[in-house]
Amino acid sequence: MALPALLQDRLTLPMVGAPMFLASRAELVIAQCLAGVVGTFPSLNARTTEELDTWLTRIGAALAAAQAADPGRRIAPYGVNLILHPTNTRVAADLECMARHRVPIVITSVGKPEGVVKAVHSWGGIVFHDVTTMKFARKALECEVDGLVLVCAGAGGHGGTMNPFAYVEEVRAEYAGTVLLAGAMSTGRAVRAALDLGADLAYMGTRFLVAQEANVPPPQQAMMLEATMADIVYTAVFSGIPANYLAPSIAANGVDVAALVKLGSLPGAEAPKDIFKPGQEKPKAWKEVWSAGQGVGSLHDVLPAAEIVARLQAEFLATR
Question: With 60 as the cut, is the pLDDT of residue 268 above it?
Fold first, then answer.
């Protein structure tokens, strides 16, 4: 396994809890790290940079206190997702805040991470970058990132379209460093399969949308427990970038799901007027139209994050 030094001997399961917009908050990150998997959150989940500072202080203090109480305990480091798209006007301020806290892991996405990599390396942190194609993987490697997050078909949020069997093989032909695999994984068996394919870490988000510590409204969690992969719709209409959403949440907002599916998933696709009701504004991605990956069919209960990790560990160890 090509794991960076700061992850070696600190994990109870080779996995990163993926950063989820709105859903990932300090409480979830702390619970994941204490359970021995990397917990992460998007910096924008904190409404301001000042609130981000408060979150980082809370996370750092909680993990340090737990480690001091039990020095031999495997407590995973945490990470912060930094969106590099030009619409994120907080990049510089949030990065400066993260530097003050010496955030151990920074996950970059939707943009070129070159400047961020240099900054994070200056304080001893590492950078993983989200990629959905070989083109983007090569661009990230040019920036000397410490690992690639291969976002494959079926992933929640802005999922890709590549098959993991093919994607990992092509990446491994050119890159021997840390590879994280994302896409429709929600069991310990899937974590084992990710390693067998050639990845070093599984990257799992949807499973933790039904964690008690997640900032997810009960109706969304209930919908996820009832959903199967047939209820996942891949479309660019709501955010401008193709993403996976729960069809029942789309229908609940008065949107014609069948017409939406027929439209396709090209980036920037505009929805024909007959998809929405007359005068209806487009529902907001994540807040009104809920996201999930194709692994929802494996979700059956809402549990504390620690119990979710324990179940994943048992499934992982039972898989040979």
Answer: no
Residue with tokens 């997640």: 214
Looking at domain 5-215+298-318, its CATH class is alpha beta
Three-state secondary structure call for residue 58: helix
pLDDT in tens, 230-253: 999 999 888 888 999 999 999 999
Long-range contacts of 84-92 (CB under 8 A, 24+ apart): 84/108, 84/109, 84/110, 84/111, 84/112, 84/113, 84/116, 85/110, 85/111, 86/111, 88/44, 90/43, 90/44, 90/49
Portions of the chain given CATH number 3.20.20.70: 5-215+298-318
Per-residue model confidence as pLDDT tens digits over 55-83? 999 999 999 999 999 999 999 999 999 99
Kindly report which listed range (142-151, 270-279, 301-310) carries the lowest average pLDDT score: 270-279
Q: How many of the other CB atoms lie within 10 Å of CB of 42?
A: 22
The DSSP-derived string for 245-303 is: EEHHHHHHTT--HHHHHHH---TTPPPPGGGSPTTPPPPPBTTTB-B--GGGGG----B
- 28 burial (CB, 10 Å; 0-12 / 13-18 / 19+) is buried
Residue 107's closest CA among 163, 153, 43? 43
Count of CA atoms in the C-beta half-sphere (13 A) of 196: 9
d(CA 123, CA 81): 17
Q: Is 288:13 a contact under the CB 8 Å cutoff? A: no
Q: Which pTM does this prediction carry?
A: 0.94
